[in-house]
């Protein structure tokens, strides 16, 4: 086993939609609603197949997410498999300055874990603590690998889907924690260097490229849904 996997972490996949010019959003970080109903349906299938859904504060607030699983058939299938009806919801933030009125805190059909640091202001802690398991790391930033290992150990999360955004996906790639990517390419272009890509706004290169192999693809409603699996190269 590779040393980096010595701490057991969940298998992590990501589910994103991108434009034909590789953007996940506009420069104003407007909500990602540029794909078809088929893509939305795929999002729910992928949610249902995972033990937890993970998103960054930016995405949760920009997209007013509840991170729930609304499809009754998928909820019932999970219960038939001995699982909770909906996956665990996990939100991450270093600073912890959440909008406490966010939908994520009023949705009650599945448990919520908030991963943050002791930088979170006390008034935010007081407001959100009744609605979630609040886990604050004594560090300036959330130690991602440790946090994922904790999810596996304490919440039995073996498979997790990251639904964004770019900053979080980049952090997962930096730590080499990304095992799969589900990517829907939509027939639209946004343009602009200020619009984020899969790994956020342009920044420094990853220390090493992360290679994937294309495991599957499907075309529907003018979009191409790709499924990539991480290909680790030893030596
Ligand atoms: N097309 C798509 O499939 C798709 C998917 C998701 C999102 N989006 C779009 O992307 C935009 C949001 O992008 P974004 O880059 O701002 O999203 P993001 O990664 O969700 O949000 C960034 C914030 O999340 C927190 N965060 C991210 N990574 C973290 C880490 N490793 N540890 C601790 N906290 C972390 C930080 O919060 P603090 O600042 O509080 O520390 C950070 O400022 C929105 O427009 C959204 O619609 C598109």
Write up this protein:
Helix content is 25%, strand content 25%. With 235 residues, it is an alpha/beta fold. The protein has a single domain, classed as Dihydrofolate Reductase, subunit A, CATH 3.40.430.10. The longest helix is centred in the N-terminal third of the chain and has 12 residues, at 37-48. The site of NADP nicotinamide-adenine-dinucleotide phosphate has 32 residues, from strand 1, strand 2, helix 2 and helix 7.
What is the gist of this entry?
By secondary structure, the chain is an alpha/beta fold. The protein has 7 helices and 9 strands.
- Strand tally: 9
User: Which CATH class?
Assistant: Alpha Beta
How many distinct folded domains? 1
Instruction: Quote the distance from N terminus to C terminus.
Output: 14 Å
Which fold name corresponds to the CATH topology? Dihydrofolate Reductase, subunit A
Number of alpha- plus pi-helical segments: 7
Mean pLDDT: 94
How does the major sheet shape up?
9 strands, mixed
Structural class: alpha/beta
Q: What spatial order of strands do you see in the largest sheet? A: 5-4-3-2-6-1-7-9-8
Low-confidence stretches: 1-5
Name the CATH homologous superfamily. Dihydrofolate Reductase, subunit A
- What CATH architecture do you see? 3-Layer(aba) Sandwich
Helix content range: 25-40%
How do the helices and strands follow one another from N- to C-terminus?
EHEHHEHEHEHEHEEE
Which radius of gyration do the C-alpha atoms yield?
17 Å
Beta-strand content:
15-25%
What bound compounds does this protein have?
Answer: NADP nicotinamide-adenine-dinucleotide phosphate
* Shape, per Cα inertia axes: globular
């Amino acid at each position: 086993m590779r040393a980096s996997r010595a701490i057991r972490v969940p298998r992590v996949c990501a589910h994103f939609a991108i434009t034909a010019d590789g953007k996940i959003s506009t420069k104003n970080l407007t909500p990602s609603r540029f794909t078809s109903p088929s893509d939305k349906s795929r999002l729910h299938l992928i949610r249902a197949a995972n033990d937890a859904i993970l998103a960054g504060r930016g995405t949760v607030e920009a997209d007013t997410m509840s991170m729930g699983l609304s499809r009754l058939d998928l909820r019932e299938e999970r219960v038939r498999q001995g699982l909770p009806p909906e996956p665990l919801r996990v939100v991450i933030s270093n600073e912890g300055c959440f909008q406490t009125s966010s939908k994520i805190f009023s949705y009650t059909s599945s448990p919520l874990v908030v991963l943050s640091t002791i930088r979170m202001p006390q008034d935010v802690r007081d407001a959100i603590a009744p609605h979630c398991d609040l886990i604050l790391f004594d560090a300036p930033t959330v130690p991602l690998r440790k946090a994922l290992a904790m999810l596996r150990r304490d919440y039995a999360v073996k498979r997790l889907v990251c639904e964004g955004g770019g900053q979080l996906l980049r952090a997962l790639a930096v730590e080499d924690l990304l095992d799969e990517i589900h990517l829907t390419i939509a027939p639209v272009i946004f343009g602009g260097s200020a619009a984020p890509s899969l790994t956020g706004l342009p920044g420094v290169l990853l220390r090493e490229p992360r290679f994937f192999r294309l495991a599957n693809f499907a075309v529907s409603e003018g979009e191409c849904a790709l499924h990539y699996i991480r290909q680790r190269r030893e030596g």
